[in-house]
Specification:
Number of strands: 20
CATH topology of the largest domain: Rossmann fold
Largest sheet: 7 strands, mixed
Structural class: alpha/beta
Shape: globular
Strand content: 15-25%
Number of helices: 23
Helix content: 25-40%
Radius of gyration: 31 Å
Mean pLDDT: 81
Number of domains: 4
CATH superfamily of the largest domain: P-loop containing nucleotide triphosphate hydrolases
Low-confidence stretches: 1-13, 32-36, 184-195, 207-213, 216-221, 483-487
CATH class of the largest domain: Alpha Beta
Strand order of the largest sheet: 14-13-15-16-12-17-20
CATH architecture of the largest domain: 3-Layer(aba) Sandwich
């Protein structure tokens, strides 16, 4: 076997054009392909890079993978087997297909071509636009076969593409030189991106003639649509939305974009139905999804910083709907919050921090869908990360990433389930195991056994039950442990809900009279385990006066009003209320409603919100 790539890179297929015009003349002239090989494997053998037995071995591996439902090109398999390098493979493909490896040399790319691809993207993706002829853009790439990047470039530039392979180690310097401002000897920071407002962009669309406009016309306006999508994401981030819903319809109905803010969906924008294909395609390109697949749901992720936005990630889900349409939902993924920023009372904060320092046991966070359970788990992990512990997580999907954690994305379709991941963790010397949800009895059994055998296990449970009820449910599982040992396993059970937070700019208050205070104290005591006697109610009111009263001891209830700051809603953001039951202090914990009432007296929310969230 030949060990030099030179043997497969004839000078006939590697050249250094003197000008853009010379390059165009060369690539637009019909040329024969090298050799008579009908398949890539034959071309590799003809080039002397591979023996016939080596090719046969690679084909056997490919066949075995296909029987398991995997479909990989033979070239990729041979590179992984060590039969040849990636550079050698690319050179053979170029020769076999009659394509070129181009050395940019002193070639000066056309300004019009450079203007189509931002410098940041060119440097990040190693792409150099060279020239435009009619509707065709010619560019240099390290890997001209990278389909996802070609889709993105095609959408961005709205041009047909001819992608040529750059000669090794030539592209980086050529890109820096091409984007360097004329007359300067040093590189200059790229000019800041001027982001148009959403209304300005919409007026651009509105100014086009509707006439016989169709989806093809809409795709021609995709540069504006791409900016509109960026602007929508920007506004969603600015308004603290948790989700963006793209809902498509056939004409004459509109494409509707809705934002979920503080738990409620509201229409944010409507576009003509003819833009539905272009909008969905653009989002798929950003998320690295297959734009041609419309019949099956897909998932992807957008790193918004790659498209000129702030460093925010979005999880994207596409779902086929009736009449061949697709809806898309984008979930804005929040960064990990410090434990003291998730609205825990001071007592709950100190108790949870103490629990997280334990060496073994089970910590459960409970609540309904969308109440921030995973966010809370990651806040706990953030508090103990970097303390000399090995932390494994099994998640589906991974929504929050943290340095230092060993995070695992499970894939049930391939047999890589949460239970399988947990069993693997137990053989990988863990200190802490986090599972994003204890969704079945098998996971619960493994989690409890892991906690019993000396590991700290953190997980969530989808339930609206109170912590004491959850503890009883765990005790009913058929797990072969000593009942005395099992009773000590749940270190803590945290129940959590989200309520709307009052807008501090417009909230209104009124002093509570003694009768109302006694009624509130009665609700408070009834929701807990204490006695609801006149003496207990009086003592509770006095504690509130000391903790939350003004200089005269007066207590206030707050209500929402509405102003420009909160867009007339009266609320801004959401607030966590918690009920934390700790094993070492089973009788000394506040219920969800009690924690909510404490936060009402602090002016953070109102009673209507607390009662609605704690109607157990």
């Amino acid at each position: 076997m030949t060990d030099a790539a030179d043997s497969v890179s004839p000078a006939h297929y590697s050249f250094r054009p003197a000008s853009a015009e010379a390059l165009w003349q060369q690539i637009s002239t019909p040329r024969p392909t090298a050799g008579k090989a009908r398949r890539l494997g034959e071309a590799l053998v003809h080039a002397g890079l591979l023996t016939a037995p080596g090719l046969w071995h690679g084909l056997q591996v490919q066949q075995q993978e296909r029987e398991k439902g995997q479909h990989r090109p033979i070239g990729q398999i041979l590179v992984e087997l060590g039969a040849l390098t990636q550079e050698q493979l690319r050179a053979v493909i170029a020769s076999w297909l009659g394509e070129y490896q181009v050395h940019p040399g002193d070639l000066k790319p056309e300004a019009a071509a450079l203007a189509l691809v931002p410098r940041a993207m060119a440097e990040r993706e190693s792409v150099l636009p060279l020239l435009i002829r009619e509707d065709t853009l010619v560019l240099l790439m390290i890997d001209p076969g990278k389909r996802s990047l070609l889709d993105e470039l095609r959408f961005l530039t709205q041009r047909r593409l001819i992608a040529l392979q750059a000669a090794p180690d030539t592209l980086g310097p050529a890109i820096r030189k091409a984007y360097q401002p004329p007359g300067t000897g040093t590189e200059e920071e790229p000019a800041p991106v001027v982001r148009s407002t959403l209304q300005e962009l919409l007026s651009t669309l509105d100014s086009t003639e509707p006439g016989d406009a169709n989806e093809a016309d809409a795709l021609n306006e995709s540069d504006t649509l791409a900016q509109i999508i960026n602007a929508v994401i920007d506004e969603a981030i600015g308004r603290n939305a948790s989700d963006i819903h793209i809902e498509t319809e056939l004409a004459p109905k509109s494409l509707r974009i809705r934002l979920r803010i503080d738990g409620d969906l509201a229409t944010h924008l409507e576009l003509p139905a003819r833009y539905r294909v272009a909008v969905v395609a653009r989002i798929k390109v950003m998320a690295g999804m297959d734009i041609s697949e419309r019949r099956k749901p897909q998932e992807g992720k957008i790193d918004f910083a790659r498209f000129g936005g702030p460093p925010v990630e979005l999880r994207v889900t596409s779902i086929p709907t009736s009449q061949g349409l697709e809806d898309v939902v984008l979930r804005l993924l929040t960064g990990v919050l410090a434990l003291d920023r998730i609205d825990l009372s001071r007592a709950n904060l100190l108790a949870l921090q103490s629990v997280a320092q334990k060496r073994y046991g089970l910590v459960l966070v409970c609540g309904p869908t969308g109440c921030g359970k995973t966010t809370t788990l990651h806040s706990v992990l953030r508090d103990i990360n970097g303390t000399g512990r090995k932390i494994w997580t099994a998640e589906d999907p991974i929504e929050i990433t943290q340095d230092g954690l060993r995070q695992v994305q499970v894939n049930p379709r391939l047999g890589w389930t949460v239970a399988a991941a947990m069993r693997a963790f137990l053989r990988a010397d863990p200190d802490v195991i986090m599972v994003d949800e204890m969704r079945d009895e098998e996971i619960a059994r493994i989690a409890l056994e892991a906690a019993f055998t000396g590991h700290l296990v953190l997980t969530t449970l989808l339930t609206t039950a109170a912590p004491d009820a959850v503890a009883r449910q765990l005790g009913q599982l058929d797990i072969k442990l000593n009942p005395l040992d099992f009773s000590a396993l749940p270190l803590a059970i945290l129940a959590q809900r989200l309520v709307l937070r009052l807008c501090v700019a417009c909230r209104e208050s009124q002093v509570i009279d003694q009768d109302r205070l006694m009624d509130l104290a009665s609700q408070y005591l009834e929701s807990g385990s204490g006695s609801n006697t006149l003496e207990a109610r009086t003592a509770q009111v006095e504690r509130w006066r000391l903790q939350h009263g003004d200089a005269q001891g007066a207590l206030r209830l707050w209500r929402h009003k509405g102003c420009a700051e909160c867009q007339g809603f009266g609320y801004q953001g959401r607030l966590g209320i918690h009920g934390l039951m700790v094993r070492d202090e089973p009788a000394n914990w506040l219920t969800l409603r009690q924690d909510g009432i404490e936060k009402v007296l602090q002016g953070l929310t109102d009673m209507a919100q607390v009662l609605a969230a704690t109607d157990l």
